[in-house]
Amino acid sequence: MKLNRRNFTRTLAAGLSAATALPAAPARKLKIGHTCITWGSFPRNAESSATLEAAVRDISSLGFYGFETFPEILEDWDSRGELTKLIDKYGLPLTSGYIGTQLTDPTMKKDSLAKTIRLGKVIKKFGGRFAVLAPNSVKRTEYNFQEYRANIIATLNEHATAITDLGLDTGLHQHTGTCIESRDEVYAVMEAANKSLKFAPDVGQLQKGGSDAAKVVKDFLPLVHHMHLKDYLGGEHWVGYCPLGQGKVDIPAILDMVEAGGQNPNIMVELDPSAKAPMTPLETAKTAKAYLQKLGYTFRV
Question: Please, what is the Cα angle at 190 between 189 and 195, to 5 degrees?
Answer without folding.
Answer: 120
